[in-house]
Amino acid sequence: MVLNRDSGTLRDGDADKMAETIAEIIRSHHHSPDVKLVGGSEIQAALETARESHDAVLVGGGDGTVSTAAAVFAGHKTALGILPLGTMNLFARALAIPLKLEDAVAALATGEKRLIDVGEVNGEIFVHHVTLGLHPRIVAGREKQSYRSRLGKKLAGLRTWWKLVRQAPRLRLRLEIDKERLSLRTASLIIANNPFVEKLGGLPHSEVPDQGKLAIYAAQTRDWKELFAMSAQASMGKWESNSRLDFLEGRQITLHAKRRKLLASVDGELIHLATPLKARILPGSLWVLCPAPAEATSG
What we know:
The protein is an alpha+beta fold. It folds into two domains: about 130 residues, 3-Layer(aba) Sandwich (Rossmann fold); about 160 residues, Tumour Suppressor Smad4 (Sandwich), CATH 2.60.200.40. It is built from ten helices and 16 strands. A six-stranded antiparallel beta sheet has the order 6-5-16-13-8-9, with helices on one face. A six-stranded antiparallel beta sheet has the order 12-11-10-7-14-15, with helices on one face. Strands 2-1-3-4 form a four-stranded parallel beta sheet, with helices on both faces. The longest helix has 15 residues. This is Diacylglycerol kinase. Keywords: Kinase, Transferase.
């Protein structure tokens, strides 16, 4: 196990005690855990070391930590298990991993390996999504505020969203999606690792990302009232069917803009991406641990 002590859940509590609790659950399923509790700056090196000497590695952290782990494990045989210790845990949701930590550990200890897709944008691996326009501005604004807990982080995000949605940016883009060419103006654009599942009240995530395609969601307006309505539909699980979103999908995307660089959020981490921005799906490139099907566990 490699645990990021700077992630939301571990930062808020007793990291050493939580690490030992996780290890005890794993031992109860007849495994011998090798536990590494490290800071965020040490996470990549710890993962690279673990990859070379273990068949499976459980990683505890948020979506940024998971994205780093996916980049380390993509193309290798070592399986990656996700412990949901972040704020949103979007990729854990996609793999149907329980969000309660004790249940997640038990599910992974008795789980199965599965081969899934990851995305790549300008050479950077992502497991869930890349956003441009309004969302990365909200992330940047949220990070300027002070908060001490996951709830505080969510409230900071809501305050920033309410402030910035009324001055939404306008991106003028030209897209090449496989063989299709189009232009659009949007305040917010998402490139997702496989389409989001349409599910009432759920946070955006795919239903096991193994369909071999990227999904693009672009807001049709920058009017704050329309953006509010779009967000309301999305919160009800409407993505492909969202009347205020353009939906496209493909295996490769090239995005042209007038700006030489665009602020982006890649799995929740802010980065400037050079244009033309190039994204592609990497099918079946990452082994992960998933909970075993219900019929397998009951049998």
